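Why predict the complex rather than its parts? Because the way molecules touch one another can change local conformation, and only a joint prediction can capture that. The input here totals 411 residues.
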Amino acid sequence: MERQGLISILLVEDDADDLFILQHAFSRAAPDVDLSVCRDGEEAVAFLSARATPDAAGRPLLVVLDLKLPRRNGFEVLAWMRSEPVFATLPVVIHSSSQEKRDMDHAYALGANVYLAKQIDLGGLVAVVGGIVAYARAAALARIA
Amino acid sequence: MTTRPGGDRGLLSEPHPHNHIVKLYLDSESLAASVCVYVAAGVGRGDRVRLIATPHHWELVADGLRLRGVDPTALCASGQLQVRSAADTLESISTGGVPDRVKFDKHVREPIRADTRAHGASRVRVFGEMVDLLWQAGDLPNAMKLEGYWHALLDTSPFPLFCAYRLALLDEGVDAAAIEAIYEAHTHTLLGSDPRRLQHAVDRAMDEVVGPDTARALRPLIAATLRSSPPSDAAAQHTLLWVRKNLPSLAARVLSSARGHYGLAA
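Output of the joint prediction:
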């Protein structure tokens, strides 16, 4: 698990190329974001479990979650999060190569907030990542207000 | 789900047999105007037109047809236009207030299939309000159940189907899941609102509630968010649903502000 600055976001992604592109998009869209990375589902659950108190250092404001992950897939991680009261409303953005209706319906039924298809257009991804950061900020402010 | 601006006469005039159009409306006059276009264009090209409507809406539609020089009485007498009471038909297809598949098949499916067999799928068009009666009674599950019966019928005997829900997009009392279910049950959505004015109102509301920078940043994310239904081409509608689902504690403020900018009571 790696960590890098202010708003904390957790990326859960096992594919090295997809992770590189995503990190690059974050560095372009929001270089001040405190980005943490987990490479499989089990690591993500352990990472979040260690930050289960609301004031825990490095506790993410949002999770970007791939679906096809080793050890525990994205659906399992999402289901675990929604079963934990402390993570039940934490925004989750699914970032997946699948655009199958079955996967979208399943993810939304489990409580995903946003479902995004992986894309290779970096400009488009940077804009969407800017939106993810804005969403994390807005959701955090809404919780405080 | 594809969204067309409120005045999309082309879709109503020349619907394809697989089109399942829904209009979200607030006032009966707005709905009746759309139904008038649908009916007048249909009878003008020789289609069989079947309405399952409330008496009030039928009165408005009939008045509208007369204004267009179309005689509804003569059309009904010839059988080209057939009008049935939505409440009575709903009762005839229900058991204990719940839509019944066997009764639907007998009272709705068979007469329509007989029409499509006799005249061809592209020569029959239907408008129905039974789902709206269930929706207005607060019974979305049974409205969706009935939509399912219509879908099954459309799968086997395609014809254009037009229905309506009395629903205010800017009303914070409407549940996001209900709106989404209605969108997903249809191929095309007509907005009762002026789409450009609605877009402007929603943009102003987002700027006010989350701030212009955040609102601007959110747009690409909202646009990229996938649903299992086809993407909407009405950004305001998509934004409102997105905010209701993902920023629920801000939704009431966004909707209130948008109502004000749209010219409705905030």
